[in-house]
């Protein structure tokens, strides 16, 4: 009986020990669970942070490629401009999403999918830009070749025009009337209307210019204007009321008297009278004849 009473306290102590062991083991298990759970969570945070960093780097590369493709100074179509704008908007959306403090697994996977699509677009966009660049090079080369050909044709046309102009000038010069012998004499007019040749200045009232036209088969037959310039002994042009301006030998000149002759390419002799509106003075008077824009001939008379 006494032994049974001694065994009961021993059993109670053993039960307490077993209970404490179980409690300790439970606590250790809980701590281990919490430790591994926190470690797994920490590992996941690190993994997500690494993935965000990788994605940000990829976005930077994609944007740099987009900038490089857009810096080629290529004229884009309206569709390509819209595509570029959409790509830049997507890049901004992804940057904003990655800047958030936390991302769910679904958000992370969506961002990764968006980046892949963006990479595909930029790769295709860059390829399209390269095609346009090569087309521009080809078009520029063709344009330069065409411009060179046009310049060459234009140069040849200018040369032909210049040659034609020179030839035309030569033809006009060859077709202009020229004089044979030119003689100039002075006359006085008496009261009865008769004319006497004189050599004195105080009796001279007019001069007569006699000349013949050199035969010229390419000269136009018909009336030709004749411009006369009379230079006095002092070297001054005598200008009368009937005087005016004309062009000869590429110069604009003033004439003393103007008339016309009928040219028939028959060697005909002509006579032109000019009455001095003023008084003749002693010395030599020079007479210049012009026709068809060129000098025709000249003569002179000396009065005492």
Question: Can you characterise this structure?
Answer:
With 304 residues, the protein is α+β, with helices and mostly antiparallel strands. The chain has two domains: 2-134, no CATH class; 179-303, Sandwich (Immunoglobulin-like). It has helices at 2-70, 78-99, 105-175, and strands spanning 179-189, 195-198, 206-213, 222-231, 244-248, 251-255, 257-263, 269-275, 283-291, 294-303. The strands form three sheets. Strands 2-1-3-8 form a four-stranded antiparallel sheet, with no helix packed on it. A four-stranded antiparallel sheet has the order 7-4-9-10, with no helix packed on it. Helix 1 (2-70) runs antiparallel to helix 2 and helix 2 (78-99) packs antiparallel against helix 3. The longest helix has 71 residues, at 105-175. The termini are far apart. 13% of the residues are buried.
